[in-house]
Amino acid sequence: MEESSRCIAYPKPGLGRRLPPISRKILKLHQIRVQLFKTEFGQKLALLKVAAILAGVAVVLLLTAYLFLAIGLASLIAAAFLEHPYRWVYGFFGVAFLWGLMGGIAAYFAKREFALKGIVPRRTLEVLKGDKIWLQGEAKEHL
């Protein structure tokens, strides 16, 4: 046998030996970030539960008031067209136009509020962006 075939090639310390410390750091970092997200999301969810119950009660009461108000306004408009056979049609279309206009304005403001405040966990996303930059730096350092 040749002398070169008897040599045992030992691996050089490379990525395989460097990976376990990095993977432990990444795992711990991931666990911390998941816990941060769960905490922040849990806080928002607790607030949303209370708000949802109050919103449900408000919707029922406001819908009842809305129905009585719509019928009353339609009656007022119909009273203005006493002799006309389509007086109730005019009354209901007049109320529908008014509600549509007010609903459009309310939808615009609601959309604007959601866009400004949002329900995305901003702190968690900022921390994760920082972690991404840190992880990229660590990977470059170890490679």
Describe this structure in words.
- 83% of the residues lie in helices and 0% in strands.
- The protein is mostly helical.
- It has one domain (29-142).
- The longest helix has 66 residues, at 15-80.
- It starts with 14 loop residues before the first helix and ends with a helix.
DSSP helical segment count? 3
The end-to-end span amounts to: 38 Å
Order of helices and strands: HHH
Radius of gyration: 33 Å
List how many beta strands DSSP finds. Answer: 0
Strand content: under 5%
Shape: rod-shaped
Largest sheet: none
Number of domains: 1
The helix content is over 70%
Which segments are poorly predicted (pLDDT under 50) over 5 or more consecutive residues? none
Features:
143 residues, mainly alpha
Question: What is this structure, in a nutshell?
Answer:
The chain has helices at residues 15-80, 87-117, 122-142.
Q: What layout of secondary structure does this protein have?
A:
Layout: H1 15-80, H2 87-117, H3 122-142
